[in-house]
Write a structure and sequence with these properties.
4 copies of one chain form a homotetramer.
Chain A: E1 7-10, H1 28-41, E2 45-48, E3 51-52, E4 58-59, H2 63-76, E5 81-84, H3 102-124, E6 128-132, E7 136-137, E8 140-141, E9 148-150, E10 153-154, H4 158-170, E11 174-179, H5 182-192, E12 201-207, H6 217-226, E13 231-237, H7 242-251, E14 256-258, H8 275-287, H9 296-303
Parallel strand pairs in A: 1-2, 1-14, 2-5, 5-6, 6-11, 11-12, 12-13
Antiparallel strand pairs in A: 3-4, 7-10, 8-9
Helix pairs in contact in A: 1-2, 1-8, 2-3, 3-4
Chain lengths: 309, 309, 309, 309
């Protein structure tokens, strides 16, 4: 198992649409198709955001929809690890609010958001789920002109980090801590003093979100040096930073996340026919280092995941 | 002017109270007293958050109160640069809101917060103001147990970064970009493509907020390497990270921010009698490198600040 | 030409024998065969140490032998850039010495060594030659037990750095500065103040020699940050560090040196059938980043090499 | 003892003369005077190179001379740790050599040099001695013009590293590994696989020698990250890099070496009246971090030194 690299395919995300790349899956069947291809190509895990194929493919946190995707994949490729995102919640499910008490209002919004984001995790109890560590901007800007296209705030308060972490570990779902900005690791360090997390700790360094840190090799090394003992790390990056970032991770003994959620293209700029084509690139990178893809079973061992029956 | 180090004293902040250190200034006179002592000790600039001495010393964005502090300092020590924070706004000034439209509600809150934070800057038109680059948690946790004491989100959307930057530069107020987490610099890079900022660019690396990055020498170096040309940098850090961080900055040719906002104590753990005592430590650090404190005039030259008549 | 990666194949070295890998070339014809295969595989340059096929394949600085190798390659593949090493000199060409004056004795030895190492460069006037920047141990130790197998000192005094640099640039041969240890770059900086070197400057970071620095991503980044403007960098590494090191270089926009001189094996541990098989790996690495191999013509443009007629 | 900083004063070195700074000690009495002042100022250890006051103050490895210096210090301030250099050997003690066999000749020279360098260590059996890890240039260049003033090679082969290490540990003398260039640490790692060294391991990062690496904060951090467990580190640097380097060490929890061997001046450019004045600066640096100088007893505990009776 030594030297094995865990390849995770992030099949869809929230922001990549069929308009960006027709291979982005919306329906449960499309997810299952993609997942199967990725497993064959070398992935041990898929990371999923459910999409509402009726409502234009927008991401959704409706439990039935998430479960349908999850079940479709599990039925097709039962061995594959399916990691469910905890980033998506209906922004404003109910009202009216007590409008004169602003602090309470905001706390209510955060709480409702938290509940919405946890709902699918609670219903599915997946083997793994993402756990976001940074409150941050999560926006879209024109990278050339700096013009703001969508301006958005992604809230992951310490309270959420605490509750998400506790619930996940309690239900036997291993959290993968998403580090979008250096300080996300320090947030994790602070909250983990409560003894929330089981070893090994699993981290994902995310690069290039408009609101997070950009990929830089020295920052990457700085993060790796700062990791606690008994940690695994993987990485993913938005757009053109994807390929240098996964290489950096792989050559330092880390793992790889790749997929249409992060980047729609292949290294040569061509549209990827699916996340599986990017998995093939990841396998190629690993092979240039003499590393082989971990099977789902090996990945579970490395990440401390117990297989659900 | 070569090698001169600009020492900024952050006199009060929002979170340090007289209960923490009795020398924290609340009244305009107390601010003026502290500012004068800091100038004498070697500071070229003070950074201020106004406090409401009636309402228990809580920070305030009420224009009259901010202006009273500003004027009191300017009257006492007219040469000193006074940097006004743009981080403080009344969280919920008015209501009721349209409660069924949640996205609009949040956008309204952000906009109101932005207006409140800009109000004093617009009224005073100071020579310099802080410009916060990260949306982030800004919380208080027990550093030993990880227990959350206050959980808070600090919103600095790209829209705010854009508007604050434009307004400040337009009124001749030099923004100092506060980098609380690595990605704050990347936010600045993205938005600056609009051509908002004049050279030289001024950055402040902030360390140790519960929600931002912790001070690490390699991360510090990573930030310095990533700076654009024609940049100045200074640094400040919360609590015990303050002294190593300012040393790191000073030995790399950067500047120093220090003061009771960030840390109430001296290096030996004793309570500081005022921010001026920390300025004395900063001067000592600089002297061990053969660097002398910049006068306000020299600081203006370095930072590209035009003195207001 | 943007993004093109220059792949250099180091065909033989001094320390890799047919006993280590039968594909190591000794005879001029073997060199030409290998060079041709490497060009076809994607290399723009070969780096050569001549070997004495009669004397057991030991490296040699005898001009006729070096020239024979050089000419054989040039005849076969005239377009390929042939970089000649300047590291090999007969250790002790003549005697007896004045033995009672030790300092003079050592200086004489160094001078004789320098002359021997420059002899082929002077005779051939190649387009490029290596220029070693570190005096260092250049030994062989058992990596598991620390037992010394061969203990050797590789002298590259400032005087040699100066003379090699001057002569090379004067004859239109572009030096590639070999950085075996961080301080080699600082040696280059010091001596370059004499104005010896033309731009662009070309550096090769060498890793893993028993006597030099080991490959570490943060040290690599530290070197890249420290480079002067208008620099190109490539990298090579001994043994198993070869593949991570070339990846690190390629993902940071640098170039790649590879070949049997540095490592006899492929990433999966199998014996390489020739340096060309490693060139194929380098091409694969580059392709995973969307980079294409530079042709010799493009490489000359990037490195500031004027083609010899 | 937590947080205590060990300050070592390097009283003389080999290359700093009374012409450079009249306070450089030559005679045993001068050494004792300086040592006493340094202890009073806060030093726990002195590092010594004996000088021949008759022969113009040149450094000497003549046992009687070294022992005279050592004894004079020990008599005056018995508690102070005295670290003896192992870098100085008579370059060419005897001849004639077998001149026709060059490799043997060089090996003989290295061996004679090793013997000369160990002689004083063997005679004195000090509590600590320096152990140089890099073969390197050790030259003098005009830093502005790059003109070579003295060109010199400092040989520290793996064989020497092995023999010095073994002998020192065997006689109860703790070696301090001098890292003049990044790869020196890797040399230490390689040879230490023989199991030569006792814990804790003690390292000194040396910066700015013309032949070694220049001080850079990211390289410094890279070294600290690469240290084996149970290591202590200190640092020293030549000339103007001295003060930033010791600050870097102190703020990262390391120790400080300072003294006229490395730099003749104070931070403000004035001539130091003695190494003790630099010790005072080191104490000031430490105090700005809330660290106090270790007493010799505390230093012994930290460094694993057993006091000689």
């Amino acid at each position: 198992m030594e030297g094995k690299v865990i390849i995770t395919a992030a099949l869809s995300g929230s922001a990549t649409f069929k308009a960006n790349n027709p291979a982005v899956p919306y329906s449960p069947k499309e997810f299952a198709d993609e997942a199967e291809k990725c497993l064959k190509a070398g992935a041990a895990m898929v990371h999923i955001h459910a999409r509402d194929e009726v409502l234009g493919g927008f991401h959704t946190s409706v439990v039935e929809k998430v479960k349908a995707v999850y079940d479709a994949i599990k039925q097709r490729v039962p061995d594959l690890i399916v990691q469910v995102t905890s980033s998506v919640g209906t922004p404003c499910p109910v009202g009216p609010f007590e409008t004169t008490d602003c602090v309470n209002l905001i706390n209510n919004l955060i709480k409702l958001n938290m509940e919405a984001r946890l709902r699918s995790i609670r219903a599915i109890k997946p083997e793994s789920a993402s756990l976001n560590t940074n409150t941050m901007n999560f926006s879209v800007l024109d990278r050339k002109t700096g013009v703001i296209v969508i301006d958005n705030v992604f809230v992951n308060s310490f309270g959420m980090l605490q509750e998400f972490g506790k619930e996940m570990e309690a239900m036997g779902c291993r959290p993968e801590a998403e580090i979008y900005d250096m300080g996300g690791l320090d947030n994790w360090f602070l909250i983990s003093k409560q003894g929330i997390f089981r070893k090994p700790y699993n981290f994902n360094f995310v690069w290039g979100v408009a609101g997070g840190h950009k990929f830089r090799p020295d920052t990457f090394a700085s993060l790796v040096h700062a990791l606690p003992e008994d940690s695994n790390f993987t990485t993913c990056a938005v757009g053109t930073e994807q390929y240098p970032a996964i290489m950096q991770s792989c050559l330092m003994g880390g793992h790889i996340r790749i997929g249409l959620e992060d980047n729609t293209r292949l290294p040569n700029g061509e549209m990827a026919k699916g996340s599986y084509e990017q998995v093939e690139v990841a396998v190629k990178v690993a092979s240039c280092l003499g590393r082989e893809p971990a099977t789902p079973t090996e990945a579970r061992k490395i990440l401390g995941i117990q297989k659900k029956k």
